Amino acid sequence: MTEVSTGLGTGRASVGAVLDFAWGAGQFTATDVMAATSLTRSTAIDAIDTLVGAEVLRELPNARAAGSYRSGRPARRFTLSSDLGVVIGIDAGDTHLAVTVADPLDRTLVHHRVEVDSTQSADARRATIVEQLRAALEESGTPRDDVLALCVGVAAPVNRDGISPPHPDGFWERTNPGLADALRDWAPVVEIKNDAQLAAIAEGAVGAAIGCRDYVALLASERFGGGVVVDGHVLHGAHGGVGEGIVFDHIVGVGSAFGLRYSVQNQARAAMKAGEIAVDGAVGRLVAEERIDSRVVLTLAASGDADAVLITDRVGATVARIVGVLGSMYDPSRVIVCGAVAESIEPVLAAARRILPEELHLPAPEIVASTLGAAVVSAGAIATARRAARERTVPQLAERRLSALS
């Protein structure tokens, strides 16, 4: 079990131990606490009663009242209070904005996703994010003072203070338009993080990397970017730039940080120009009409369409080269392809798996598709906010309430 800082004074170590246990326990008894923490019965009961008095834990109806206990004295049962507050996760992508309001444990209260103009100014983007945040919180019926932690994912490197470095074209400054300052007063803990790092956190928490200590979450729909986990730790870097996709602009056989959607379109156009696909075929018609939908091409490939298979094989070679670079740099056991495109990416990954062993000298990592779809960054933002609530905000809340009772 990962140790967390309770935030409570050393004189309340038993209270902190019970609070830490309560996060993952669901309903529990004093006996459960004793088994998990090695506290004596009297100490466990005192700590539980202290947290009930502070309204951090609540006592449930006993088993007899619930109709599930027949004889003897029923044990008292407890659970973490359901009204401690909420956490918020925001996926601030280049062309979309998703805001999720959730409880600190496992329930989503509100999830909004809207398309945004990728050309809007930094000021307009910041205003849009705040507006959507306010609307989602109002819909959840939660007062702003009850926000425990907030995490935002952006398509830019982010340092530990939530600031992105300057970009030659101003892209990073527009993507992260001073969000650390703009959102500072929205929660006791506000974190701004790179979206690929949040994808890696999501995959480790609820996705395809559960139990895996060395992996890369490769965001691949719009632009390539990797969230890197080595020895169980998410790598960050001085400016939050570990896994930044600009490197792929310089890799022969990749040539661009633009993601799989563009790779599919470019390969389809190139094959059409070279006369390699049928003009009157399904893919040929898409190219001729300038409406190449990568998901349609991937679906056609999965059904065996020869022209689509040609395209996905070539995109698969690109993915193999990317995974080969990541494999040589970070030696992961698994690379998880993430984003909305992951739902239909299997034909590309099948081709990449065939080619990958030629791309590196180390054993080839396993390549799998994420099951979290377009919500992967949101899931990582919520997981990060929940961790902040558990480790920092709720223990501080408990400390204040206990002090008030003293």
Structure explained in plain terms:
The chain has helices at residues 13-23, 30-37, 41-53, 122-140, 171-175, 179-182, 195-206, 260-273, 282-288, 294-302, 306-330, 346-355, 376-405; strands at 57-60, 77-80, 86-92, 96-102, 108-115, 147-154, 189-194, 215-219, 225-230, 233-234, 334-338, 366-369. The strands form 3 sheets. The chain has a 5-stranded mixed β-sheet, with helices on both faces. The chain is α/β, with parallel strands linked by helices. The chain is 41% helix and 16% strand. The longest helix has 30 residues, at 376-405. The model is unreliable at 1-5 (pLDDT under 50).
Write a brief structural summary.
This protein has 406 residues and is α/β, with parallel strands linked by helices. The chain is 41% helix and 16% strand.
Topology:
Blueprint: H1 13-23, H2 30-37, H3 41-53, E1 57-60, E2 77-80, E3 86-92, E4 96-102, E5 108-115, H4 122-140, E6 147-154, H5 171-175, H6 179-182, E7 189-194, H7 195-206, E8 215-219, E9 225-230, E10 233-234, H8 260-273, H9 282-288, H10 294-302, H11 306-330, E11 334-338, H12 346-355, E12 366-369, H13 376-405
Parallel strand pairs: 3-6, 6-7, 8-11, 11-12
Antiparallel strand pairs: 1-2, 3-4, 4-5, 8-9, 9-10
Helix pairs in contact: 1-3, 2-3, 7-13, 8-11, 10-11, 11-12
